[in-house]
Amino acid sequence: MNPNDRKQRRRALTRCFFFHNRTAAFLAMSAVILNIPLNLAVAWQMQQLIDIAAGSPSAFTLPKISASLALSFAVMAAIMALGSYARPLFIERAVRQYRDYTFEQLTRKSTAAFHTENTSAYLSALTNDTISIETNYLPALFTLPGNLLLLIGSFALMLYYSIPLTLAAAAAALLPLAASLMAGSRLSCQEKKVSDQNESFMAALQDMLSGFPVIKSFKAQPEAVRLFSLRNAASLKSKCSANRTRIILQNICAAAGQLALFLVFMLGALLAIKGYGVTAGVVLVFVQLMDTAESSISQLPQIWANRRSANTLIDKLAAALSCGKEQDGIPAPHTLQDSITLQNLNFSYSQEIPVLQNITYCFEAGKKYAIVGNSGSGKSTLLELLQGGYTGYQGQIRYDGRELRSFRPDSLYNLISVIRQNVFLFNSSILDNITMFRDFPEEKTALAVRRAGLESLLAARGADTPCGENGSSLSGGERQRISIARCLLQSTPVLLADEATASLDSATAFEITSSILSLDGITRILVTHRLEEPLLRRFDEILVLKDGRLTEHGSFDSLMENKAYFYSLFTISQ
Ligand code: ADP
Ligand code: MG
């Protein structure tokens, strides 16, 4: 993949965080930055307070310093309130936009891309990985500069109080920094592993849930539970390693920080006793500043590491989004005037095994064709190629003389509709599912409903009846009729169906196929495994595939007269 493209994708993803979100980001950042001088001012006032109390000379009185401290705390509370309002708002909007953008980009991918990609990568990206970004990456946008500035401010104030003490503190602070930098890159690797494992976990879960009825009916629950448990353990194990590294990192930083604090405290006490201009107030404030600086230092490498690991996740998503884009091309026509021709068509999924071999044929516009053949003979593959599902074929597929690959893939939907075995239905009304949420003239919708044989269903239930989750309140035949009505409304000149009625009972299957065969004016190519004479007779031609080759074609009668492969297929099936 093109690295420039990936960089652009990544930028587009991170841009989602700030889109219409700059005010919240600005307020959250302001809260962080305003807090820093306040923190330092409080430290300074504490020092004054202690020294006044200890009797050292000072320009301020005790009540004055106390009042100013109280004021500082009040302002601090207001700033905290601002931060606690703005930061969650920023994060919520950032994550929402990131997810929306990802899903929107996914819908732009070509259907061909979905054949070859693993969709669980996106499930993982939109769930687990987003949580990691939400908790690790986005807050770091504020904590990272905030902690850095606080560190610089604390050091400046410490330098003002005592140079030798500050130098000692700086040297001691190197300890936690070095230790945690080393653990940081390890953490980033581990986060990537967590994401990969989560992806396989999602894939397994998806598979198992969709195969639930099969698992139940063959009593394979124990095996399913075992497989689930394996994936579950693998996914949590990688998470456990990452958490362990994170905790080790925290502990090293905390321990090294404490050690540094202790060293500085001892040196400060020594300097105070020896009288090098260091007062009790200075030592105490120094310890407080050290504490502030130390907690900044101990958090910095971890924030940095978390940020890096979230970056890896964003990169991973960017890479996934970069492939399988819709290719450019000319727009596909809305009509088929003449024919669809196949010229020496060859195709294989993998190099070694040819699936379609040297197919040459001409489908004439407006006619109806059946494709028959044994299981594995390449029927579905041929239909998939006709709809632009795979572009890696040799030879040619021409719609009215123009090569299929020259069309822009998203414009193919103007030319070809496909009736599938599994009809996808939105959990919305029957009418919405027919129109797919678009507006059509009422007569046009009514005509499509009538031609698809849906009139009685609509009369009985009403067009506004909800279909239920993926059409659960409808029968298989009703779902198929909805998909036919959909295709009719799209008004595409070509209609393809791959065993669309295979899951229906034979009476319903017969009716549905009949309905499709009655749709005059549309070029129809139907893959069918039901060899029923009354239906087969109604096709203009039947194409017979055997081991990926077109062995015969012709009308039902002529094929029967030939007494060749089709004849034997047909007689065996009766
Ligand atoms: P049919 O629809 O006639 O049963 P298919 O077109 O589905 O046949 O399959 C033809 C051959 O291609 C079979 O040998 C099948 O195993 C193989 N095949 C189908 N789909 C794929 C795929 N996605 N990847 C690799 N091989 C495939
Ligand atoms: Mg098939």
TrEMBL record:
Domain named ABC transporter: residues: 340-572
Annotated compartments: Cell membrane
Keywords from the named record: ATP-binding, Membrane, Nucleotide-binding, Transmembrane, Transmembrane helix
A single Gene Ontology CC term: plasma membrane
UniProt xrefs under SUPFAM superfamilies: ABC transporter transmembrane region, P-loop containing nucleoside triphosphate hydrolases
Pfam hit, one: ABC_tran
Membrane topology, as annotated: Multi-pass membrane protein
Membrane-crossing residue ranges in chain numbering: 21-45, 65-86, 137-161, 167-184, 247-267
InterPro entries linked to this entry: AAA+_ATPase, ABC1_TM_dom, ABC1_TM_sf, ABC_transporter-like_ATP-bd, ABC_transporter-like_CS, P-loop_NTPase, Type_1_exporter
UniProt KW ATP-binding keyword: yes
A molecular function GO annotation: ABC-type transporter activity
Domain ABC transmembrane type-1: 26-309
Principal cellular location given in the protein's record: membrane
Entry protein name: ABC transporter ATP-binding protein
Lineage of the organism: Bacteria, Bacillati, Bacillota, Clostridia, Lachnospirales
